[in-house]
Write a structure and sequence with these properties.
136 residues; single chain; alpha/beta; four-stranded parallel β-sheet; 20% strand
C-alpha cells in the first residue's frame, strides 16, 4: 500500500495519484472541509474534523476522539482491497495526517518509520489510531 501525506492546498489543487485511492481529509473545527476534485480511481473520501492540539483540561478545542479513529480505520478496512494508495491530508500536512498514515501503515503490516523521519506526527492521534485498529 502506498501512502501519500499532503496539505490542504495541494489536495484542493489536485495531486497526481497513479492508482485507485481513498482520501482521508482532516480539517480544523473552524474551517470548512477541503474541496477535493473528483478524479478517476478515487474510491471514496472520508471527512473528519478535529484540531491538532493534544487535549488539555479545560480546553475548548475539538480534539480527535476514539470515534474519529474508529471511523478512519473502518473506512480503510472497507476499501483496502480495492485501492493501492491511501492519501491523508490535513491543513499543513505535518502533524495529523502523517500520524494517521504512520498508524495505518503499521496496522496494515508495513513500516511507518518514514513518517517520523519526514514529518512531526501527532503522538496523540497516532495512539488513538493504533488503538482503533488493534483488537483487544
Amino acid at each position: 500500500m502506498e501512502f501519500i501525506v499532503t496539505d490542504r492546498a495541494s489536495i484542493e489543487q489536485g495531486i497526481v495519484i497513479r492508482t485507485a485511492c481513498v482520501i482521508i481529509s482532516i480539517h480544523d473545527a473552524d474551517k470548512p472541509p477541503a474541496k477535493i476534485p473528483q478524479r478517476v480511481g478515487m474510491r471514496g473520501v472520508l471527512y473528519v474534523c478535529f484540531d491538532g492540539a493534544v487535549p488539555e483540561p479545560g480546553s475548548e478545542r475539538q480534539h480527535m476522539t476514539a470515534d474519529d479513529a474508529t471511523a478512519i480505520w473502518n473506512f480503510v478496512q472497507r476499501h483496502r482491497e480495492e485501492v493501492g494508495t491511501i492519501v491523508c491530508h490535513c491543513e499543513q500536512g505535518m502533524s495529523r495526517s502523517p500520524a494517521v498514515a504512520a498508524a495505518l501503515s503499521r496496522l496494515l503490516g508495513e513500516d511507518g518509520s518514514r513518517f517520523f523521519q519526514e514529518y512531526h506526527p501527532n503522538e496523540y492521534v497516532s495512539l488513538l489510531m493504533l488503538q482503533a485498529g488493534t483488537p483487544w
